[in-house]
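Hey, can you fold this one?
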Amino acid sequence: DEPATAKIFLGNNQKNIAILVRDNDALYIKDEWLETLGKLLEALSMNLADVAIINLVRHSINFSWLQNNLHPKHIFLFDAETQQIELPFAIPHYQVQKYAGCIIYLY
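Sure. Predicted structure:
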């Protein structure tokens, strides 16, 4: 588990939205993905300060860590599975699941 004091995410998590990706080549997220994500957030009147982006290739975290440190209302999984954050269930791609006060999206 990651230490609670280490900043392992990109963004400021101001709206408690965790974006979890798997990217072998980047510290957080590929530049082109970040650009697209920035445009999507802008369309929703948000920006990178509103989210926390974590690369699961670089940091092994679980749902408990997310709850205790980021207090997410929403978790978006891109190229990752629920088992990687130790959730006790699987979600089909492009589905939404509510769990422990959080809405989880799998893409």
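The longest strand covers residues 17-21. Let me know if you want another pass with a different chain boundary.
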